Amino acid sequence: MAAKIVENERTAMAQKVSSQPDGPGQRIGKRSVISGVLPLVPGGGPMLRERLPQFQAEAAYWEERVGTVHDFLMFLFDNDTKLFFTVIYDGDFKPYFDDLANKAAPWFDNLLLGTADGYKGFDAKYFSKYLIISEFFYASYPEATCRDVKKALRVRNAFEHLLDEAQS
Q1: I need a surface site. Which of 22, 43, 81, 125 has the fewest CB within 10 A?
Q2: Distance (Å, rounded) from C-alpha 10 to C-alpha 155?
Q3: Domain limits at 162?
Q4: CATH code of 62's domain
Q5: pTM of this structure
Q6: Centroid of chain to Cα 144
Q7: Phi-psi domain of 87 (left: phi exceeds 0; alpha: psi -120 through 50; beta: other)
Q8: What is the distance between the alpha carbons of residues 120 and 157, in angstroms, rounded to a whole number?
């Protein structure tokens, strides 16, 4: 049974959260979220921690190739036996997952091979076993895609440069 929402001035701006049309996860506007918990092999946690600095250092390179990721976070828990992740991205699940497989699989393989239990290479079937749907999702700017944000930043920088030049 769904809880009844009391309508008031605080609910007037409520966002419509929906399920992904083509896979797991949630969506608000153009933004989507997916989370998961991967089991690690015995000793996989310390190995993963050793690899994380390189993974972090390469994040901008790989995520730029994918081009639709707003936020991506991971953390180890349960005595380093599990890895939790959440990704907020633009669009539908299947195209996003295809982009990961085609554009960023080596990045994930370098992190997860030998650390995540049963991981043999980037594969939708592997991840689908461990994906979970969040209980809560909010997006500050649900209609702004990564492309929109990058364009707005370029315009702002160009405008600031123009103002700086005018003051010189």
Answers
A1: 125
A2: 33
A3: 18-167
A4: 3.30.70.100
A5: 0.88
A6: 15
A7: beta
A8: 43
